[in-house]
Amino acid sequence: MTGLKADGTPQLDWVGDNNRGSGLHTTYRMVENVFEELDAPGEWFYDKAAGKLYFFPPKDADLASAHIETAELDELVRVQGGGPDDAVHDLSFSGFTFARTHRTLFDQPYEKLQLGDWAIARAAAVHLKNTENVAVRDSLFDQVGGNALFVDGYNREDTVSGNEFSHSGASDVAVVGNRDAVREPSTWDSMRKTITDTTPGPRSDNYPRDIRISDNYMHDNGQFEKQTSGVQISMSRRVTVDGNTIHDGPRACVDINDGTWGGHVIENNDIFNCVKETSDHGPINSWGRDRFWPLTADDATKKSYAKLDAMDTTVIRHNRIRHSSHWDIDLDDGSSNYLIEDNLLLNGGVKLREGFHRTVRNNIFVNGGAHFHVWYADSGDTVEKNIFVTGTPYSLIQADMAKSEPTVDNNLFWNNGRPVTGVTDAWRALGLDTHSVTADPEFTGASPFTDPKKLDYTLQADSPARALGFRPFAMDGFGKAGSPTPPPLEWVDDTPTDTLDAFQEPLLGASATRIYSDAVKSATGLTDYDGLHLPTVPTTSEAYRQGLRTNDVIQEIDGKKVTGRLSFWSVYNRSAPGADIPLTIWRNQASTQLTVHKPESGEQINNTSGVVYAGSGWDWKNASRGGAGGWADDVHATQNKGDSFELTFNGTAIDVITQINSDEGQVDLYVDGQPAGTIDNSSPTRQHQQTVFSKSGLTPGEHTIKGVMRTGSYLIVDSFKVR
After folding, report:
1. What does residue 403 show for φ and ψ, rounded to 5 degrees?
2. 231-246: per-residue pLDDT in tens?
3. Is residue 401 classed as helix, strand or coil in its secondary structure?
4. Which of 135, 137, 683, 698 would give a disulfide with 92, using CB separation of 3.0 to 4.6 Å?
């Protein structure tokens, strides 16, 4: 509120620390210094014209003996040289307490920084500009109203070490260059779509370089502003953030606003309880919205320009980071030229979005994974030799792995014996994780699944991760000695209610599913998550007639171990009609042998039952997500031309059953590797469970049928009839 309108209503203006700017919130407002609102202990009103301060004292306060302080200054110390050729140099501040500066929100102008989300007030309790070799050491920054320390424009080899930053109104340390150092800068208000200057690097010397921020304790920043960090970096080069403990803040604890000009080293830090008042962000966050990112150009052109600004590799190494959401490290919107290695990532993972030349290597992910979002073609990314302690190591959004051509391999996956999703035959067919394994990494001490407070993830000498090239790293040396440490993991009930793992597919009139949760494991009395569970076996079903019962678990089929769906169906589908198939059944916490007789007349096979899908576009859809009307109220679907399905079966005839509609098109079919014609699944209206192809007269025995999407917007797979 900046005053009153002529009609007496409040005049409200939006003041923001966000580059993108969203205007006034529809509900929340901030109004202060209104005399009529002085009605509660601790509140005050200042009548500037009369020079009077009104104060509502807390209960039992003795105003006669009280000492009252007011914040008068936005800055306490300003060190400013004349320029790069006339810098203040070789100066040290040590042992000071900097406290209670005036809040700069509503008091200072905000400058929009590049295309990162930040706008910033160039003010701080200690403000360094045009300096060299200036040090701020062993001091306390206590409840300053804005930024605590600002390294502004040209600065070289300055040091910030051994300090405590407590309850800053904005950021603790901001390292920010000038826009005149950036070639063809952009903001959200003025975004360039073309490049005319292709010279790499900065345009002027007005930027910080070789700055060191180490051994600080930083906590509870952003008391007034919310686009804040423990360390904020923008338009700078080679900033080292080493050995700090940073926790509790509304946004990232370490933020790199743009890729100009890289070379930063973020290492040995202990970071947790960040992003407490905002969202879509990580404790370490970056944007790379540099010259290449907003271009109207193809991916190859963007890649050729990606290092014009992100010249030097930024290294994020040997940090312990704990988050309460998806991403411990969030490389967003074009962040390029990064090396992420030797990090202990707790309760979150790494996001890689729209960038080039990122390597994620030798990290331990606990209760988090790698998120691949909106990838460019030929990204140059590498994800290798990591340990993923999670059931979902990868999450993809608009990422075509075939086109992006990343290197993803030699990773170890572990979900406490439960299934690990996503690393399928189709995934490996793209050349991904072909040497990776699922195995217990064998940490020393307790398992994180039983000890959520576990912080030591040292590997035993015989850990299978070592054979994949994983190099153990030290589990100490994170953060400032004597500072708090991260809270426990947040393992949650992982029982899926709407996923493929929990889907009950048909089997001889019964339903079958994976051992997808601790609840199922407990109900069956198993000690692991292997097998195919039969949650319902109706008394009228063929399965019941042949001796199967509700809550049975099929552990072996024809002498082969069953770990999940595919391992069961790959054997079952290859068995001849009328064959006797020996099973090992877990029932009432004991194994028993049973033989089932496969129907001689053939049977219908669902899209989930041993069908192998190749290509990155496939998505399983149940009744609530578009699969309603399928044979089992589910389908598999893709929108990527060239994606394929393949089923191996035993019989003399096959029918392909699917949905037809106006958005579907041609599919090339192959039987036993030979072209079998092209079918057209287009139709003016949607029709479910349509037989679109039949092939009979096959010799008795094993055969394969394969379909490849050729045209249309969708390829749908529903089921097959084997005869």
Report:
1. -80, -35
2. 999 999 999 999 999 9
3. helix
4. 135
